[in-house]
């Protein structure tokens, strides 16, 4: 997240140029600057590893961490990332680099376990990894039977099709957005709200259902479900559509279908996040003012005042951690 701007070379942006004492030659002094693009990428990688660890297991998370070493930002000024494909041997070395290799274990079993995880993450249509086969020439006897299929036989070195793996970055971004959305929905509307959202928004094709069908499919009592559903409509998470029986009958007799519009959903969630950040900042300022007079004389406080000071610091720590959580959610929705 911090990059070196330059040293004793043609001065790029951010380099301080000093005049030499003799001869009038320019001398460059290295300076460092914050790189937001790299920091954002680091946060994304950390979130992906944590998500895989929660949903699969620790070893799969370590494999993803090794694969993410092949994801790097583009050149300065360009947006996006470059993703490199890696062969099995390279991935094994990366596992050692990220301290994921377990010493004392059977190497053959470890390789087989790694291969199964890679194929598992790349086998599904919406998998986190993508896989391709490339043609490679290998010396006889050096081919791992599990890594490739011989394409020809003969006295010459065999030609094999070797699998290569890479992170599907678009799918990784999509997975983070889906995870953040589910977490926000659960935090605001509980398990019932998440069930309703998954029913309306996650199925293919997207569903437009009446409330009775929603409550039946989600196994929710109508009284509780109607309260949650109406609140989700009011907050812009769920939308509704009127289907009139006929033009002559009043609106109360119409059919009302509920559905999720993902573009409106993202805007509504962003608004909620920004409002929550604002509320936390206001609360933080209030708590900070409460403790100013105690912090200024912390060496001469009474027992009760020390308790109040420690409690104020605890509240400030909680608010700061909440800032970080909301900032990450904001980053997931807004970064490209």
Our measurement of the CA-to-CA distance between the termini, rounded to an integer number of angstroms, reads: 17 Å
Mean of residue pLDDT?
80
Unreliable runs: 7-21, 139-143
- Biggest pleated-sheet summary: 4 strands, antiparallel
Domain count, please report it.
3
Give the radius of gyration.
Answer: 28 Å
The backbone outline, from C-alpha atoms, is extended
Question: Strand portion, in percent?
Answer: 15-25%
Proportion of helical residues: 40-55%
> Counting H and I runs of at least 4 residues, what is the number of helices?
9
Describe, in short, the structure shown.
The chain has 336 residues and is α+β, with helices and mostly antiparallel strands. The chain has helices at residues 36-55, 58-67, 88-97, 107-123, 169-201, 211-218, 222-234, 262-295, 303-334, and strands at residues 2-4, 16-19, 26-29, 32-34, 71-73, 81-83, 86-87, 129-137, 149-150, 159-167, 239-243, 255-259.
Give your account of this protein's structure.
One of its GO terms (molecular function) is single-stranded DNA binding. Belongs to the eukaryotic RPC3/POLR3C RNA polymerase subunit family. Keywords: DNA-directed RNA polymerase, Nucleus, Transcription. Residues 183-260 form the DNA-directed RNA polymerase III subunit RPC3 winged-helix domain. The protein is of the alpha+beta class and 336 residues long. It has 3 domains: 37-127, no CATH class; 173-260, Orthogonal Bundle (Arc Repressor Mutant, subunit A), CATH 1.10.10.10; 271-334. The chain contains 9 helices and 12 strands. Helix 1 runs antiparallel to helix 2 (58-67), helix 1 (36-55) crosses helix 5 (169-201) and helix 8 runs antiparallel to helix 9. The chain is extended.
């Amino acid at each position: 997240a911090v990059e070196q701007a330059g040293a004793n070379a043609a001065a790029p942006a951010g380099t301080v140029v000093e005049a030499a004492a003799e001869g009038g030659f320019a001398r460059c002094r290295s300076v460092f600057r914050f790189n937001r693009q790299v920091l954002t990428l680091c946060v994304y990688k950390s979130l992906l590893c944590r998500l895989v660890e929660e949903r699969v297991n620790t070893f799969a998370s370590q494999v993803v961490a090794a694969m993410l070493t092949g994801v790097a930002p583009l050149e300065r000024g360009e947006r996006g990332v470059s993703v490199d494909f890696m062969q099995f041997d390279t991935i094994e070395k990366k596992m050692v680099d990220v301290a994921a290799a377990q010493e004392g274990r059977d190497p053959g079993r470890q390789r087989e376990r790694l291969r199964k995880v890679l194929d598992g993450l790349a086998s599904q249509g919406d998998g986190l990894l993508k896989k391709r086969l490339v043609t490679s020439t290998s010396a006889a006897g050096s081919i791992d039977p599990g890594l490739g299929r011989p394409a020809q036989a003969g006295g010459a070195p065999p030609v094999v099709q070797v699998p290569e793996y890479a992170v599907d970055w678009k799918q990784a971004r999509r997975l983070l957005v889906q995870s953040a959305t589910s977490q926000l929905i659960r935090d605001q509307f509980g398990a019932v709200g998440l069930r309703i959202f998954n029913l309306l928004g996650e199925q293919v094709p997207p569903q437009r259902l009446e409330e009775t069908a929603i409550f039946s499919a989600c196994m929710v009592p109508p009284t509780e479900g109607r309260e949650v559903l109406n609140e989700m409509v009011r907050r812009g998470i769920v939308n509704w559509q009127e289907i009139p029986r006929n033009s002559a009958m009043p609106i109360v007799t119409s059919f009302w279908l509920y559905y999720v519009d993902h573009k409106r959903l993202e805007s509504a969630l962003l608004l909620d996040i920004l409002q929550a950040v604002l509320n936390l900042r206001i609360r933080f300022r209030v708590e900070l003012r409460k403790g100013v007079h105690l912090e200024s004389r912390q060496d001469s406080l009474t027992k009760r005042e020390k308790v109040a000071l420690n409690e104020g610091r605890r509240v400030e720590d909680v608010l700061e951690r909440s800032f970080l959580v909301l900032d990450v959610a904001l980053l997931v929705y807004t970064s490209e």
